[in-house]
Amino acid sequence: MRAQRSPTPRPATGAKPPGPRPAPSPAFRKVYQNRLKELGKVTFDRIEVEPFAVKRFGTTFGLIVSAPENNDDIWWVTAEPGDYMAFSAPWDSGEHDT
User: Fold this and answer.
1) CB 86 within 8 A of CB 78
2) How would DSSP label each residue in 9-63?
3) In tens digits, what is the pLDDT along the chain, a chain of 98 residues?
4) How far apart are alpha carbons 48 and 44 in whole angstroms?
5) Closest CA to 62 of 83, 82, 80, 86
6) Which residues contact 62 (CB under 8 A, 6 or more apart)?
7) CA distance 88 to 76
8) pTM
9) Which residues make beta-bridge pairs with 61?
10) Where are the domains of the chain?
């Protein structure tokens, strides 16, 4: 279970909430394909990242490690600021918590 944190107030953006998205439109696909062609040869592959933290303007930015607080808790890595995305084992699953 993820450790509870006090919510961070976020400004209203009008953005859609996370969740399933509709299939991209044909116009989007065309622009996407054209941009890829502009790049030349493109290879899609896995990426590797590691935790880091940078403090600027009184705010910590980075992928922050949170150790288990009790026996029922697990390790988490959160994208900060805002705690808007969190990762846990298995680390290579591609899954995340929002």
Assistant:
1) yes
2) P-----PPPSS--PPPPHHHHHHHHHHHHHH-S----------EEEEETTEEEEE
3) 444 444 444 445 555 566 677 888 999 999 999 999 999 998 888 878 889 999 999 999 999 999 999 998 899 999 999 877 888 887 777 777 77
4) 13
5) 80
6) 51, 52, 53, 54, 79, 80
7) 5
8) 0.52
9) 54
10) 46-98
* All residues at 6 or more sequence positions from 68 whose CB lies less than 8 Å from its CB, including other chains: 74, 75
Q: Which residue, among 63, 61, 57, 96, has the nearest Cα to 81 in the 3D structure?
A: 61
Token representation of residue 75 = 């390790």
Integer Cα distance of 45 and 71 in angstroms: 35
What letter represents residue 55's amino acid?
K
Q: Is 92 helix (H, G, I), strand (E, B) or coil?
A: coil
